[in-house]
Fold this sequence. Notes:
By secondary structure, this protein is mainly alpha-helical. It has a domain at 71-216: CATH 1.20.1330.10. The protein contains 6 helices and 4 strands, in the order αααββββααα.
Amino acid sequence: MSSLVVNSNLTALNAYNNVNSTDMAMSKAISQLSSGLQIQTAADNPAGYVVAQGLQSQSNGYTQAISNAQNGVSLIQTASGALNQITSILQTMNSLALSSANGATNDKNSLNANNQEFQALANQIDQIANTTSFGTTNLLDGTFSNQTLQVGAFDNTSNQLTLSISGASTGALAVSGLSVASAASAAAAVASVQAAINSVASIEANVGATQNQLNAIVANLTVGQQNLQAAYSGLVDVNFAQATTTYSTDQILMQSGVAMLSQAQQSPSLVLKLLQ
């Protein structure tokens, strides 16, 4: 039932409520379009906000874990490069020992020359073993043992990798104190040096296996991070096609609502016609 009244313009109030509702929708659409986000605060979507923060935390964890694993690869490569040098030195030492062991063709001068080079090479091994480091962490002096590498987004053993690299000094390789100054001592040195070559090869094999493991971890984390970012984006990022359509609709509703509110506010003036 409708009637002409002056004190209560229900039509204008209804039009005002519609305009106010449309204005709130437009403000939300403008906020989404200007930020690119459909969830900016917990008020926008409390449950979605909680899920989004969890996804973002895990994604950030994956990002850092990838960096950690890549640093681990760099560490391994540093150690591997030094081990390659030590292997090369041991191969030369092996040649010198075999040369000196051939007593029939060596005189004292040649044996002394071989021994001087042999000792210099042994010192070089110790220099490499004691100075090879990643940052301030020594890698080949025997102290790099049970070092933890965080390669996941969570604090559990499945997200951690324990690294150890055996020492590669002459003492650790059992070639310290050897001499090739005589055929007899050279013959004894041959076995020790060749055993050391095998030991370094074993260390390098373990290091190489660890590097392959880290590379696989990086590849897996990268895929996981991409999936997390996709899930986060689907939850938080605004759909611009949908948002612009909503905004255009709200603009039309706002214009028509304001026009109708203006018309509704004129309704009481019709009472004057009845009073004339």
